[in-house]
Amino acid sequence: MSQRRTSTAGTPIHPGEVLLEQFLEPAGLSQYRLARAIGVPPRRINELVLGKRGISADTALRLARFFGTAPELWLQLQNQYDLDRAQLALQGKLEAIQPLVTREGLPD
């Protein structure tokens, strides 16, 4: 997950898109059925799939238990999405920041 994940349009991929395309659709599982199976309101899964909600630690634990994955997978997807969005939003401003140079002349 260290590389920036973007769609073909160049926009970051929301973890809800991963949930839908790599987990729900291949399993033939509806959002409603997933929500009931993991004990969350169906709206939570719907908002996640639509990219309107992020994955919390609570949701990551539930998804991991259900799908047999690590909770860190879900949190890393969310973290990468957040970082990618911030990087796009701050691109010009970040380039203007000069890195700190130590006395030896090498960045720390």
From TrEMBL:
Protein's name according to its UniProt entry: Plasmid maintenance system antidote protein, XRE family
UniProt keyword DNA-binding, yes or no: yes
Keyword DNA-binding: yes
Domain HTH cro/C1-type residues, every copy: 20-74
UniProt-recorded Gene Ontology molecular function terms: DNA binding
Keywords assigned: DNA-binding
NCBIfam families: antidote_HigA
